[in-house]
Amino acid sequence: MWCAVHRLTTRVSAFSLNSAATSSRRYNAQSVALRLSSSTSEASPLTVIPRVKAADATEASEGPVLVKGWVRTLRKQKEVAFVQINDGSNLGGIQCVVPLSEIDEDTKKELDKVSTGCAVVIEGPLVKSQGGKQAVEVTANKLKVVGECPGDTYPLAKKRHTLEYLRTIAHLRPRTNTIAAVARVRSHLAGAIHAFFQEVGFVYVQTPLITASDCEGAGELFRVTTLEMDKISDLPLKKTEDGKGTTDEIDHSQDFFGKPAYLTVSGQLGGETYASALGDIYTFGPTFRAENSQTTRHLAEFHMVEPEMAFADLDSAMGNAEQMLKYVVKHVLDKCQEDLEFFSKFYDKELIKKLEALVEQPFARVSYRDAIAYLQEEIAKDPSKWQFPDVEFGTDLSTEHERWLAETKFGSCVFVYNYPKAIKAFYMRDNDEDGGETVNAMDLLVPGVGELVGGSQREERLDVLLDKMGELKLDPEDYWWYLDLRRFGSVPHAGYGLGFERLVTYVCGIENIREAIAYPRYPGHAEF
Ligand code: 4AD
């Protein structure tokens, strides 16, 4: 009995149209289920009308169903009205046909209130559709407007808007086809990432968002403080050495954590500690970078997927990243066909072919030194074509270099490995074989995006790590716990970080990362 009722509560909305508009009854499905489950005696004759989502409406129904969503368009003819509803479950929504001569007076009045954007509940059977666009439609015997939407002030009343404009109404933009499709694909990608790592036995670890260390050492940190920053005169200042006066440095011992604290730029260091106990772990959470980048690839708040593997080298990290990407892209190709076709039509004609190629083609691998040689050879042909024509060992590759390598030179995703030590983070393992000039690091470059993944084998040798920290003037005191990993059962280990919004941008074939996240944060923008 419990199983049957449980299934019922999750799959149907157990109240009829008459009560559906009452917000306090929104969660009544459960109480109805309870009454059903104790139906030993004279249970009330409840009519349970199942709610159907547009994505699941594929066949005619035996009885009436409820459809709940927001009106996209209303078209009234003499005999019938066509109400196109979108409930977010798919791109196309569902068509509801209202037979005007057969509906009651209440529904007629309600129909007069219908406008683009209003929220409605519709009751009627699913029937085979007369038109060719959809398999089934609803014959709407009853209709109730749950939330009206005045057309003169509704910002989405008109059909077409630019993506730039939609960013200014980010709270309403998920009601557009593009942003809703991005949200669905994003959700499938996130689910597939978890599924992949769980299937291959990785433990999901949530590392802290507030931290005292700068993992990447790039100084792009947002500070976290409870000190009263509005009143400079009230800020506690450090005392001078003689204790008699004050310096102009803030005294963080009086701050919330008793020391400077920041929003994390990466969960890696915490991830390494758990990998050093659990073997294979991954984190998947928000990260923050106060870099002043106004590009189509950078956000100040983004999500990173960071696996970390003990007893592993750089090769294992590259292999895992390739396997994971193929898995999640294949999942989206299987599950999000309608949305991907939409993106192909409006944003990138080659999208589906591109995604299929990613799944099928092995990723290329090239050392940084060779990549530089290829770039130099190409740039020499016509330096004027390049924004950054000066490329040599030690150059931090720019997006145009990365894209040329992936799009033109290799025509596929490509791992570039063994980067110069000088341009990479302190925790990366020195390559012993080339005089310590390079580290065991890799970036995965993807056509159309550039860098999607950055990773490395970590420096597991305490003495080497201490030397590297010394060179970069990092205080070992601040990393005592991280260094302990190298003191107690140290093990070769490796991992990487994948920028989740860059993946969403790529898979949706859209131009700008600001469409890949619900509320993009970038310099000057923290609205909503
Ligand atoms: O290369 P990054 O900086 O690597 C790390 O943070 C390592 N600690 C990860 C690890 O080894 N566990 O960043 C990893 C990825 C980049 O390849 C890029 O895709 C993304 O994170 N990324 C950004 N995405 C959006 N906006 C930004 N500002 C980003 N910065 C990095």
From TrEMBL:
A Gene Ontology biological process term: asparaginyl-tRNA aminoacylation
Matching PROSITE patterns: AA_TRNA_LIGASE_II
Highest rank taxon of the organism: Eukaryota
E.C. number: 6.1.1.22
Domain Aminoacyl-transfer RNA synthetases class-II family profile per the UniProt entry, residue ranges: 184-520
Family: Belongs to the class-II aminoacyl-tRNA synthetase family.
UniProt name for this protein: asparagine--tRNA ligase
